[in-house]
Amino acid sequence: MQLRKAQQEDIPALYTLWEEAFGDTKETIDLFFDTCFQMQNTLVAVCDGQVRSVVYLLRNVLQNGGEAFSASYIYAAATEKTYRGKGLMHALLTFVAETETARGTDFLYLVPASAHLFRYYGKCGYHIAFGKQICTFSRVELQSFAEIVKSNVPYIAWNRAVLQFSKKLAQQFGDHCICSGNGLAVWTPTGDCLEVTELYAADGRLSELLQVLLQACTAQRFQLPLPCTAPTEKCENTAMLKALSERAKAQNIQNAYIGLTLG
Predict the structure, then answer these.
(1) Which of 91, 221, 240, 249 lies at a CB distance of 3.0 to 4.6 Å from 126, suitable for a disulfide?
(2) DSSP label at 104?
(3) Where are the alpha helices (DSSP H) in the chain?
């Protein structure tokens, strides 16, 4: 097994791996490669002369109070079916941590797709550090909430390429979305209730974005993913974090808000 950064000749294999793992169309894969893909941020495991496992890194910032930390999002991690269970992904994740540590990255983070993966990544040194609360409001309640909403939890400040990808991905799948400044909301209308799936504001403050959402929609009920301001039974685990630098290890990141998952 060889662990390395991706090369130009790997791209056809990367497409094949993505399609096998996630079932996406070429159009969707093209969208990622056109907006977010960077060769130096793509790490692969090669076996028998072919890329068999891959991790894409999206470099962003984790904001914790007045401090900013470099953070790389592990996205679309995949292993070819016939090579699963052979330790390729575990080795690749170790290589990712070594590579990003050498680059001076403070944190790695990822969104497990299942309870099994939460356990798997836990064994790789990641811990649950992100959460959300699913809250339902009437239109009148949301209007009042939007005027006063505040959140002091740590949050991810996504880069513009990721925002563009998330917006176009939503449009491609027929979802509705609005952008306000560096904020983004994605939703699906279900009867009289507007179900928001992605809710992100670049400065961590959602007030302006919620007010724009109210202006753009006539729904009478809204279901929103919001930051967890304190541990509660309603808080749903969403993502995991791994500290790399000594500066990062000194932090106690809990109930951080991810905003976008790019799912």
Answers:
(1) 240
(2) T
(3) 11-22, 26-35, 88-102, 115-123, 139-148, 160-172, 207-216, 246-249
How many whole angstroms separate alpha carbon 103 and alpha carbon 201?
Answer: 27
Q: Say if residues 101 and 125 touch (Cβ distance below 8 Å).
A: no
What sign results for the dihedral spanned by CA atoms 205, 209, 214, 217?
A: negative
- Phi first, then psi, for residue 234 (nearest 5°) are -85, -10
Place of tokens 């109070």: 65
Which of the 8 DSSP states describes residue 257? B
Q: Quick one: how many helices (H) and strands (E) in the chain?
A: 8, 12
> What does the pLDDT look like over 186-234, one tens digit per residue?
998 777 899 999 999 988 888 889 999 999 888 999 999 999 875 555 7
Q: Give pTM, 2 decimals.
A: 0.94
Supply the DSSP string of 57-87, one letter for each residue.
EEEEEEEETTEEEEEEEEEEEEE-GGGTTSS
- Express each pLDDT in 71-115 by its tens digit: 999 999 999 999 999 999 999 999 999 999 999 999 999 999 888
Report the chain's terminal Cα–Cα distance, integer Å.
30
**Maximum Cα–Cα distance across the chain:** 61
Structure tokens at 154: 């740590």
Q: Give residue 234's pLDDT.
A: 77
Question: Do 111 and 258 contact (CB within 8 A), yes or no?
Answer: yes
CB 116 within 8 A of CB 232: no
